[in-house]
Amino acid sequence: MAGLELRGIRKDYGSTAVLKGIDLSIADGEFVVFVGPSGCGKSTLLRVIAGLETVTAGDISIDGAEVTRTAASDRGLAMVFQSYALYPHMTVHQNMSFALENMGIAKAEIAARVDRAARMLRLTDYLQRRPAALSGGQRQRVAIGRAIVRDPKIFLFDEPLSNLDAELRVATRKELAALHAEIGGTMIYVTHDQVEAMTLADRIVVLNGGRIEQIGTPLELYNRPANLFVAGFIGSPRMNLLPTELVRGEAAGPAATLGIRPEHVEPCQEADADLTVRIDLVEQLGGETFLYATGPNDIPLTIRCDGQSRLVRGDLLPVRLRRDHLHRFDAAGLACRSEPLPARSPS
Amino acid sequence: MTGKLRRLLLARRGGASWHWTDVASYAYLALGVLLMFGPVLWLALSSFKTPAALLEFPPSLLPMAQSEVSVPGYPQPLPLFQVTMEDGSVRELAQVRRVGIVAQMVDPAAPGQTIRVPADRRTPVRHMALAVENYTDPLTQFDFLRFLRNSLVVTVVATIITLIINSMAAYALSVYEFRGKSVAMLGVIGTLMIPITIILAPVYLVVTKLGFVDSLWAVILPGAATPTGVFLLRQYMLTIPRDLIEAARMDKASEWRIYARIVMPLSMPALAVLAIFSVMWRWNEFLWPLAVLTKTEVHTLPIALNAFQGELQTQWHYLLAMTVVTLLPVALVFAFLQRFITSGIANTGMK
């Protein structure tokens, strides 16, 4: 198990810069998730760490040892691919033991390790099957098993759950979290799904356009997004963004945009209201309700209410924004950190 | 088994009765069978004909020979004819000799009396006769086994070398990114445009310089790297997902191991196709071996068969029989490997 250090990583494909200077350090045993929209460079970054792509500039070191020019096979990392990439002509057992054979480990030791991983992943009954005879979830577990038997310095996961159906994805997510708790390895996990990121990560790295937007624990990102991109990307449904002049008492000050999460918008008496919105859509989920509404100047606003709501499309609803949960962003889209949170209460 | 065969032979496009398209399909298929198997069948049947039967006109499909009978008083067996007598009766007579339009015949049952018959009143009595000596004679007199061994050595060794060299070239051209890769590929494909007749002389000079003339290596080595093979394998290897190769790299496999343990097994269908091609090419190769193999003891079968074709006369009966023998191994190889052509490796580990 090991830590990882990235310094000024750049990657260009011809004239296209995919990674524009990534500095990151990952501690031993940490579960770090790279998240971002498609094309943000998160998979490229993972492949750079794996050694499957060379860097244009920058250094990579694992456990203090410089590996920037080291071949993928010599870095001692294990990777779980999005397509699983199981060897179709080998049985599950052979798939899992292939790397160990390459490492020149004794037969008895290989058998013991494969056996242990198979028991951990409930694959013992399938060891003699070929990948084609397995279900999607089982293939996924074989791919993880192939990584576990290696006892690698770092586990790399490239969107491993994206080919599973929703139910299996939730189950496998829990298994992954349990696995990390059990074997405690350093894990780097790439996903575009922010729920996976929030639930699995010790720390999340939000990437956009080849740059790191913010690094932090899931709740730090949720509670204190560093900029508009992170504010919009983390959280579902998205944070509401409003121009400051629409909100009473906010027009003065450096902030240009206000952000407020759907659960912090409250229906209230007309006298206390910051805005009056018209309901466009009501999503009743039973335990909670999402109201999609339009405010003044056609600003869309999402409101989350506990329990069930009697409101219907077309209703007018006065709402209040909870001042202690208001996020303020300046004209450049950066969070205004000089203002202490919680902010002023309404007059 | 018979049920399967019945279904295969009586398959229709669906529905209970025969549609005209069924009839048309079967007619078309029958024509194809006739066109493709007709010559082979003709060859096989003709290989059992005696030299006389081969030259007969009109030719017969089946190997027939005229019946002969030993008649006391005549040293040689006499050919047997059916003769329509002047009174209209039909008798079976042996012919002693023929003079102009009159044949002197004799009744085998009563050899004492000669009967004169007009030549156009008799028809030969024929029976089916397999001239097995077409096969047995060359096997004893003609050193068939040596030529067979030479051909086998050339075919097997050359095919193995071809598969190894071509697959390695294809691996490099499909898996690696390097400067000049497409130029190299174009170069390989470009050599397809150069027929062997053009490079015959230069390659001959090279082979002579290397001292390979009159050794089987002279046939094996120059054709081992085939552009067709490289191209075929490269195209197939391009379809192997990159993830598998990268997964193997992450699994600490060396490039040789990736080639041997991952890419080669997954390329089996393409390798089988190339193996079939290579066997057919090498087994039937004629011009190049004819140029470099001058001593009889290193001749391959096609060259050896050429010996039956003299300047003045051709021993068609031996030539045909040995051609049939030559065809058999390729047909067998094809029968065993053809399932690889039709079925790829069905299972994949990808999503």
Automatic annotation (TrEMBL), chain A:
Keywords noted in UniProt: ATP-binding, Nucleotide-binding, Transport
Molecular functions (GO terms): ABC-type maltose transporter activity; ATP binding; ATP hydrolysis activity
Tagged with keyword Nucleotide-binding: yes
Gene Ontology CC, one term: maltose transport complex
Domain ABC transporter, residue spans: 4-234
InterPro entries, alphabetized: AAA+_ATPase (IPR003593), ABC_transporter-like_ATP-bd (IPR003439), ABC_transporter-like_CS (IPR017871), ABC_transpr_MalK-like (IPR015855), ABC_transpr_MalK/UgpC-like (IPR047641), Mo/tungstate-bd_C_term_dom (IPR008995), NA-bd_OB-fold (IPR012340), P-loop_NTPase (IPR027417)
Family: Belongs to the ABC transporter superfamily.
Protein name according to UniProt: Sugar ABC transporter ATP-binding protein
UniProt organism field: Azospirillum palustre
TrEMBL record, chain B:
Transmembrane spans: 20-45, 152-176, 183-204, 216-237, 258-281, 316-337
Protein name: sn-glycerol-3-phosphate transport system permease protein UgpE
Domain ABC transmembrane type-1: 148-337
Residue ranges of coiled coil: none
Lipid bilayer topology: Multi-pass membrane protein
Similarity comment: Belongs to the binding-protein-dependent transport system permease family.
Record GO biological process: transmembrane transport
Gene3D superfamilies from the UniProt entry: MetI-like (1.10.3720.10)
Predominant cellular place of this UniProt entry's protein: membrane
Subunit structure: The complex is composed of two ATP-binding proteins (UgpC), two transmembrane proteins (UgpA and UgpE) and a solute-binding protein (UgpB).
Pfam families, alphabetized: BPD_transp_1
Compartments, record wording: Cell inner membrane; Cell membrane
InterPro entries given in the database record: MetI-like (IPR000515), MetI-like_sf (IPR035906)
GO cellular component assignments: plasma membrane
Highest taxon of the lineage: Bacteria
UniProt keyword list: Cell inner membrane, Cell membrane, Membrane, Transmembrane, Transmembrane helix, Transport
Its biological purpose: Part of the ABC transporter complex UgpBAEC involved in sn-glycerol-3-phosphate (G3P) import. Probably responsible for the translocation of the substrate across the membrane.
